[in-house]
Each structure stands twice: as structure tokens, then as C-alpha cells.
Amino acid sequence: MSGIEPSKIQESLQEVLQQVIELLRKHHLVEGLVHKQEMPRHELVETLVHRQNLVELRKKLDDLHPADVAYILEALPLEQRLLVWDLVKAERDGDILLEVSDAVRESLIATMDSEELIAATENLDTDEIADLAPDLPQDVLHELMVAMDTQNRSRLQSAMSYEEDTVGALMDFDIVTIRDDISLEVVLRYLRRLGELPGHTDKLFVVDRDDKFRGVLPLKRLLVHDPEASVAAVMAEEAVTFRPEDDAGEAASAFERYDLVTAPVVAANNRLVGRLTVDEVMDFIREESDSEMLSLAGLREEEDLFATVWKSIQNRWTWLAVNLVTAFIASRVIGMFEGSIEKIVALAALMPIVAGIGGNSGNQTTTMIVRALALGQIHGSGLRKLFLKEAKVSLVNGLIWGSVIGLIAYFLYRNAALGVVMTGAMILNLLLAALMGVLIPMFMHKLGRDPAVGSSVMITAVTDSGGFFIFLGLATLFLL
Quick one: 309-479 is in which CATH superfamily? Predict the structure, then answer.
């Protein structure tokens, strides 16, 4: 099957971004020149020039997919972002707000009044409004709910009641249901009357008179079986289903494992309440991946690339403060061995190597553990085996790379004892890194905290202080 390669799509999008930036540059340049010049009817001329320079930019934005406009908005400084946002057609505002990051969405919504926000969101699906609800002012949300019919209002309230990382928060209500006591020919006529199926529809959901879920009818079965056959004879009664309160991460794993496109969401009484689609799952996986990446670096939340200095400081200061404390502890560990370092200056040059390798090894272990926890692959019975495995890996790595750095230390300083101490310190610090790489994320997980948050900072702190203490301690014992 032919198609556009992802790299080509990204390259094309980059070209569009550069064209938008160039149009903005020309606009500001011409506008600045006109503003400085004195001429008759100056305001009229300035207005005409202003409009002329933005026509091409508006046309280019109109031709772009909402996700591409969102990408451009995220890549522009705040002043240019708001200028581009004003050029977007009002009827596309809602779709674009759904695509931008939370931080950028906040900056856009802050510039919109209540009427603009209502106009932007009133035509969105119920599940889409639920996605935007946390960022909308309460008065806007109230007006939207008042304007809804009873069914959609109930659905919106239901979607908003579920926690963020649950299936209920991701599901949508745009579903096609059929009964099991009708023929396939009747189903086909019903679909023709609908005229259009919801996106990502690969199966129809079969329910009884009380909306109790009975099974699914894949579209491929509908098309290849005898039209006179009944739905009950063709449908699949065994189907992967989810509860609204199920963990979204586990649902995402199920979508990957069973190659799902859509799946029914049923309440406790087996009543069909919605569906989960692959596009929502993909969005969730991407957001979780981004969040985990930020958390490993100690960032509290996703940050607007062009956020204010103060907002960026607030986002980053927590783990920087923790890092400052751990760095001070490491410095005090070094201070305990000032006498040893004064007598053997080589120790000062070699000790960062032990700490650095230990930190890298610990972060590798932590990343593996965090991923395994996210996938639900770690259980009580396997924890001991996992730790022993990581300890063995660290022991072998310590012997290999400790010997290498020990030999290098010997050839550099012509001191065999120093090389042995270097090897021993490397082995012990890598074992410490393995221990902490397993225990720190597991401990945070037991406390109900995200094991990815700040794990990298904590591992580095432990391996730095521990590496300095082990290396300088061994040197003091065996070299002095």
C-alpha cells in the first residue's frame, strides 16, 4: 500500500512552519515601515497594508489540518502565536484547541471571551467537550451544559466524573448499535440510512432491548455473509470489553495486544455506555510518554516552550532544589576525605568516573523498572528474581569496565593499588546503582506515586554520594 512517509510529512510541515514564520516577518517589517512614515490618511493606508499582508497567511492556515495548525501555534512565541490564532476561522477553534498541548491551550483560552469559547465548543462532540472542560471557565461550561439536551448533558457529566487516567475519561459516545434478532440485510439498510459511520468503526455493537451488551458484529462479517442470515448467527459473542473505571494504561496495552481498533465500554450492569477507539488510545500513549520523559527529568508538568520566565521557574524549581540538597550531601562526603585527596591528588581526577558510570547504570535500571511497572509486568514473586538479575548484570559490568578503568589508572599513575581500588569501587557502586535502580521506583509505586517522577534525580544523587564514599573510603583504607 502506497502512502506518505512520516519523515516526508514532518519535512512538509517544517516547510509550512518556515513559510508562516517568513510571512509573519514580512508582515511585521512592512507594518513597521508604514507606521513610521508620515502620509495623508495614514490610518487607512496602515489598515490596508495590515490586511494585505495577512491574507496569504490566513489562506495558508485555512488549508491546514487542525493538528498542523496546532503544531505551528506551539512552535511560535506568544505574540506571533496570538496573531496566528486570530487569523484562524472561528468554526475551527474548537478542533484546534483539542490538538494543542495543555500549556498552549491555556495561553489561547486566556485571550478568548465567553462568547468566543462557547462558539468554539458548542459544535464539538460530548467527549471532546469533556476533554476541554478542565481548561474552560465555569460560566462557559455551565452555558454549554444548559444548551445541551438531557442525554448529552448526562453523558458530559458522566465523562467528567471519571478520573483522568481511566477508560471513562477517554471513551466517546458516538456508537452504532443493532439488535441480534434482525437480519444482516436490515442492518445494511440501516447503515445506508445513516449515511456516515463514526470514525474508526470496524464493528457494530449488538445490544438487547435494555441496551445490555450482547456482542459485536465486525463489518467484514456483515459484508461477506448471506444477507438473510441473522445478526445472532454471525456476531461474535466473545469480545474485549472495558469498564469505565478501568485503568487507561491497561486498556492501551490490551489495544496493542489484541490489535483493536474499537472496543465497547460497559457499565457494571453490562449496559453499553460508550466505546474506546484507537485514536484516543494513541493520544493517551503519546501523552503518557511525554509525561514520563518530563518526569524523569524532574519537570512537574508539560511546559509551553515560550512560557514566561516565572512560569518556567515554577515548573522546574522543585527537583532543582532536591538536586541542590543532594549535591551538598555529595560535597560533604568528599569533604570527609579531604586529607586523602591532598595526599593522593589522582583521587580527585578519578572519583567523578566512578560516580558518573554508577549514575548511568542506575538510570538504565530505573528506566527498565518504570517501564515494567507501567506495563504491569512486575509482581511480588518476580521482584526477587528481577533484583538478582540486575545485580548480576551490574557485577559483570563492574568487573569488565572496572578492570578497564583500573588498567587505565595504573598506566596513568603507575600505581597498581590505585588500579585495584578503582576496579573495586566501580563494582560496588554499580551494585549500589542496581539496588537503588530497583528499590526507588518500586518504593514510589508502593506509595501510590508516579515512579518516573524525579527517579533520575534521586538515582544520580545516591550513586554520586555512594560512589564518592566507596571510592574515597577504599582509597583511604588501602592506599594510605
Answer: SLC41 divalent cation transporters, integral membrane domain (1.10.357.20)
Here the cell at position 262 is: 474499537
CB-based contact 203:262 (threshold 8 Å): yes
Question: What is the number of alpha carbons within 13 Å of residue 85 lying toward its C-beta?
Answer: 29
| pLDDT confidence of residue 88 | 92
Q: Tell me the pLDDT tens digit for each residue of 292-326.
A: 666 666 665 566 667 777 777 776 777 677 778 88
Instruction: List the end-to-end C-alpha distance of the chain, in Å, as a whole number.
Output: 71
Residue 230 DSSP code: B
CA 56 centroid distance within chain: 34
| Rounded Cα distance, 256 and 463, in Å | 36
Domain ranges for the chain: 1-100, 112-161, 177-296, 309-479
User: Under a CB-based contact definition with an 8 Å cutoff, are residues 471 and 422 in contact?
Assistant: yes
pLDDT beneath 50, residues of the chain = 1-4, 39, 41-42, 44-45
pLDDT for res 265: 96
Total number of residues shown for the chain: 480
pLDDT recorded at residue 309: 72
How far apart CA 131 and CA 24 sit, in angstroms, is 31
- Structural Rg of the chain based on CA atoms: 30
Query: Quick one: 128 exposed, middle or buried, by C-beta within 10 A (0-12, 13-18, 19+)?
Result: middle
Q: What percent of the chain is predicted at pLDDT more than 90? A: 44
The per-residue pLDDT for 39 is 47
Q: What DSSP state is assigned to residue 197?
A: P
Q: Does domain 177-296 have CATH number 1.50.10.10?
A: no
Residue from 313, 279, 318 nearest 297 by CA: 318
Residues linked to residue 205 through DSSP beta bridges, in sequence order: 177, 216
pTM confidence score: 0.71
Tens digits of residue pLDDT in 407-423 = 999 999 889 999 999 99
Helix pair angle (278-296, 248-258), 10° resolution: 120
Alpha helices in 110-235 (DSSP H): 114-121, 126-132, 138-147, 150-161, 167-170, 184-194, 219-224, 231-234
